[in-house]
Design brief:
- This protein is α/β, with parallel strands linked by helices.
- The chain has two domains: 214 residues, 3-Layer(bba) Sandwich (FAD/NAD(P)-binding domain), CATH 3.50.50.60; 204 residues, FAD/NAD(P)-binding domain (3-Layer(bba) Sandwich), CATH 3.50.50.60.
- It has eight helices and 22 strands.
- Helix 1 packs across helix 8.
- The chain is globular, with a radius of gyration of 23 Å.
- It starts with 12 loop residues before the first strand and ends with a helix.
Length: 429
Amino acid sequence: MSNPAHHAHADGHYGVLVVGGGQAGLSVSYHLKQAGIDHLVVERNTVTHTWREQRWDAFCLVTPNWQCALPGYPYQGDDPHGFMKKDEIIQYLDGFIAHVDAPVLERTEVRRVKQRDDGVYAISTTRGDFTADQVVVASGGYHTPIVPRLAERLPAHIVQLQSSAYRNPQSLPEGAVMVVGTGQSGAQIAEDLHLAGRKVVLAVGEAPRCARFYRGRDVVDWLADMQYYDMPVEKHPLREGVRDNTNHYVTGRDGGRDIDLRKFAAEGMELYGRLDDLREGQFYFAPTLGSNLDSADDTYNRINASIDGFIEKHGIAAPEGAAYEPAWRPAEERTTLDVETSGIAAIIWCIGFTPDFSWLDAPVFNGRGYPAHTRGITPIDGLYFVGLPWLHTWGSGRFSGVARDAEFIVHAIREKAQERASLTAAVAA
């Protein structure tokens, strides 16, 4: 990691201040250095800390390694179609950190960012005040874990964790474990516990799923050939609505496979619908299990059908495919579960995060706290976002697409800087 002292400005002013030192902020720094633009990256914890401190032990990528394409630092390993495990991801990121050698101020929290009347941004942090001509917000959109208020009514002996704090089955007390939510984290954590022989009660949400492999290849490879990952948000059928979608559940574990909740149920996992309430010693669930499983399978089959169409249209030789047929169906919708007799000793909340940009004093946010922007460029002069899901494409919040977004943002920053320099020169003349 580079020493910020080497890059310190006596007056505390920078051309660009980047908030956040994850893969998005470091990608922006890479392109700013390429463009010769002075800047500072401010990180509340340590760079790329989320990958190190908020992932469980058995975590691995759900996208193949070849999609790791951080700027100037593509995946160089010998398993492009494999899925890096947690320690391999950290190793890849360590190489990227050294490659970028960004000017970073770590363990520094940004308290407030506000544009002054003269157009310059004033930035207040836990380690002093700075100013900058332009600001890039690269802190992601997953800040505050969502835990429902009903959690407050749980008996004290039930251990509660949010998905980012889960590490392994051994760290939980003996007994059944309830996992709430079936996005990528919930589905994979439920699998991790199930494979370890733990009794799992799973509250199934509305997340879709997809196949890992279909017709002889990874589904990601097919979708890449179909140019799905190049589709900009404005061309997506849902437009900006796609940003609210839950990610499809699938896993890269043990070389990659489907996550089939029906199969888990047939093996003894207890599936319920959405968790709605807790009162008088009973959990209450919505009668949505059957419809949620069916909806996830519909998405699974729809993606595969689009691959069938692509294969047929282009006359590609590939093994035959077939639609997924449910291996298990719920006999009934169970809507209650007794807290004590269920033997539940721990609950893992896997229902996502809400953004927290309360430190950014700028009129760019909608009612749910998300910024208005076009490909990361906000209506406010000199203010940008990068690293958000579907900022521009599917890969915007991932290793695969953040480089393209960062390069685009830095191009806009360079143009704005040149425009200001010309204006200043004209005034001086």
